[in-house]
Amino acid sequence: MPHATQHAESATAELDSALRGGPFHVALRAAIAARGLPLQRVRHHLSRHGVTVGVTSLSYWQQGARRPRRPESLRAVRALEEILQLPEESLLRLLVEAGDACGDASGQRSAALSHRARPEASGVLDGLLAELDHSSSDSGTHTLGHHEHIRIGPRRELAGRESHHIVRAHRDGVDRFVAVHHGDPGCVPARMTVHALENCRTGRVRTHHDTGVLMTELLFDTRLRAGDTHLFRYGVEDGTAGVSREYVRESGTAGGQYALQVRFDAAALPVRCHRFTQHSPAAPRGGRQELALNGHYHSVHLVEPRARSGTLGIGWDWE
Question: Do 125 and 75 reside in the same domain of the chain?
């Protein structure tokens, strides 16, 4: 086998390993080496994507001396994934898992919230988080897996949901998770109830009637150290609004596996169901795909092996 071919195969194998296990700087260095691009060329390609990053910064990133954190730097990382022909969010994922990537344009990490967010509720969420003495910029964890089970009742209402979480702490001392439930229009958060089902207990609860938000602490009864994982499960009983037509999961960051199942009461079955995506609140919905209703369990589901930032949901038509 020619030496050049052996070298290329070795570089590709090193890159594949680095993208799977990280850390970020090793993966970036391996990607640049596999493509055979000098840093000056990388900087030139970035400028063509409308992103300005100096050669010195790129060198620091691939050495591990510095890590991209600012919004402009994270835009550069997204561009690097395209320039270096890498899977989408493969480098960003490594930053998220290290707790360094921000979750929005402000440069802050998104809190570890499980909710159906709406743009008008963002200020409300920040206020309720402050009441719970919880930072919206650093929850202390990132999500490895999140499975949601939604129940639609006989009145076609959102009857409740159950959430299973797997999280990993990226700093010492994490002992809680803040969960947010956002009900359908017309819901009454004060009449909802939260049940801690496994490996957690319910702490303080806050509600906001106008936006349909219920927020609660889930306490772990243990303090996680950086790198520790924790599995927990909780449920929300809702049933306070009218007819439900969709369930949406919105996140500012990429994460681990996400699964969503919607189960309908046998007395109220929809005529059709579909999944959809939306990259940002201003973007149109896309990725529509029809989902077949399970005849025995009256349910539909979707699974994302690695959830991306943005909106993902299931909608249904009653007639």
Answer: no
Report the alpha-carbon distance of residue 245 to residue 12 in Å, rounded.
46
| CA-angle at 305, arms to 162 and 152, nearest 5° | 30
With beta carbons less than 8 A apart as the criterion, state whether 39 and 72 touch.
no
Q: How far apart are CA 302 and CA 316, in angstroms?
A: 13
Answer yes or no: do 10 and 67 share one domain: yes
Residue 97 is predicted with a pLDDT of 59
47 and 157 in a common domain:
no
Which uninterrupted H or E stretch holds 75?
helix 71-83
Distances (CA, A) of 286 to 32, 194, 196, 247: 33, 33, 35, 15
Instruction: State whether 192 and 294 are in the same domain.
Output: yes
Partners of 195 in the beta sheet? 235
CATH number of the domain enclosing 289: 2.60.40
Q: Give the pLDDT score at 224.
A: 93
Pair 164, 279 in one domain: yes
pTM over 0.70: no
C-alpha gyration radius of the chain? 22
* Domain membership of residue 192 as a residue range: 119-317
pLDDT tens, residue by residue, 145-200: 999 999 999 999 999 999 999 998 888 899 999 999 999 989 999 999 999 999 99
Amino acid identity, residue 304?
A: E
Classify residue 57: in a domain, yes or no. yes
Number of structural domains in the chain: 2
Please name the amino acid found at residue 164. H
By DSSP bridging, strand 310-317 and strand 246-251 are antiparallel
User: Before 71, cis peptide (omega within 30)?
Assistant: no
Per DSSP, what are the bridge partners of residue 290? 274
Residue 158 within any structural domain of the chain: yes
Positions of the chain with pLDDT under 70? 1-11, 96-122, 135-138, 252-254, 280-282
Structure tokens at 175: 């002992």
Alpha-carbon span 257 to 274, nearest angstrom: 20
